[in-house]
Amino acid sequence: MEESALKFVTILVAAGRGTRAGGGLPKQWRDLAGRRVADWTLAAFAETGPVVVVLHPDDIDIPLPDSVHRVLGGAIRSLSVKCGLTKAWELGATHVLIHDIARPCVTPAVIAGVTSALADGAIAAAPGLPVSDALWTSDGETITGTRDRGGLFRAQTPQGFEIGPIAAAHDGFEGEAADDVEVARSAALPVTLTEGDEDNIKITHPADFDRAARILRARAQSGASKDPSTMDIRLGNGYDVHAFCDGDHVILCGIKVPHDRALLGHSDADVGMHAITDAIYGALAEGDIGRHFPPSDPQWKGAESHIFLDHAVQLATRKGFAVSNIDCTLICEAPKIGPHAGAMQAELARITGIEVSRISVKATTSERLGFTGRKEGIAAIATATLVSA
């Protein structure tokens, strides 16, 4: 089959509950470096073609991009994959990539290794890493023996297949399988081994969230060191203003700051976060907060502004960009910003998933001129830099 005739559909298996990861919510919907685990994974496959997400019945209405195809999963993983394969058939797939949604750090190189093998004629292909550690057996308390590690590999995803053979293999498979390579081999399908990546970890235990966050943040920041001739660099600016009203505190860049007034607004009136959000939307040529969260919509009344900023960051990710740095200036006579600037930077870092060292929050006055000089409100200006990821 000619490469141009290939149509890849990605199946993201997301029907599990992930209880070993802790945290209450299923791991795929938990926060990771400022957005959900699933959002990072979806962004990784944004350029490979249609995406099918196989969901648990409790999650069928969970927010996902409009382009995603939702299907209900089964009681076990292999049944969920079959549900995804059925949808992929409907979408006209010639080949499928089956990926654990809890592997958010998968790289373009790992994905390309699988798709290239399939384009070269392989029926099935999957990434793996050679086992480098010594292997032991144990009775649970003591070491009882060793095993030869020669020829052993650690399995990863995405695992790619020509859709007809893998669908037939699943139809003839009974019981549960560790992965789809096991299903393929049960039907005697040859599976080409492609190169895996140490960073392509599967989030399984609570500590895996911290490791995955470090990997993703390091990647976002490394974008600034790439060859500029191969990058798309975007700058955006934002401006916002809110008047004072009765109250005893203001919310600025996600931090509650004591003050003898509050800020008036349809949401929580976080003037700093609004300016930053508009800067990201501006860099993407996606308008402003009002386009995405109309003030005429009552559901956003009193909303916390991190919802808006998180949406802007997720939109950037889906469009293939990472936020490289943020600079925000708050313009007011009072309250004093300096004592709270560090906490504001930390909160913005948590939401956006970038390092604190790439976020600036500072303040200035207008020398008692204008509405800010008359202490009638607070203004904010912000700049955001996006780089192609």
Describe it.
This protein is of the alpha/beta class. It contains eleven helices and 19 strands. Strands 1, 4, 5, 6, 7, 10, 11 and 12 form an eight-stranded mixed sheet that branches. A five-stranded mixed sheet has the order 16-13-19-17-18. The protein has a two-stranded antiparallel sheet with strand order 2-3. The radius of gyration is 24 Å and the shape is elongated.
Radius of gyration computed on alpha carbons? 24 Å
Q: Write down how many β-strands occur, each being a DSSP E stretch of 2 or more residues.
A: 19
**Stretches with pLDDT under 50, minimum 5 residues:** none
Give the DSSP E fraction (strand runs of 2 or more residues): 25-35%
> What overall form do the CA principal axes indicate?
elongated
Q: Distance between termini?
A: 31 Å
CATH architecture of the largest domain: Alpha-Beta Complex
Relevant CATH superfamily of the largest domain: Spore Coat Polysaccharide Biosynthesis Protein SpsA, Chain A
CATH class division of the largest domain: Alpha Beta
Q: Describe the main β-sheet briefly.
A: 8 strands, mixed
Q: What's the domain count? A: 2
Give me the CATH fold name of the largest domain: Spore Coat Polysaccharide Biosynthesis Protein SpsA, Chain A
User: Number of helical runs?
Assistant: 11
Roughly what is the average pLDDT, rounded to an integer?
A: 91
Helix fraction bin: 25-40%
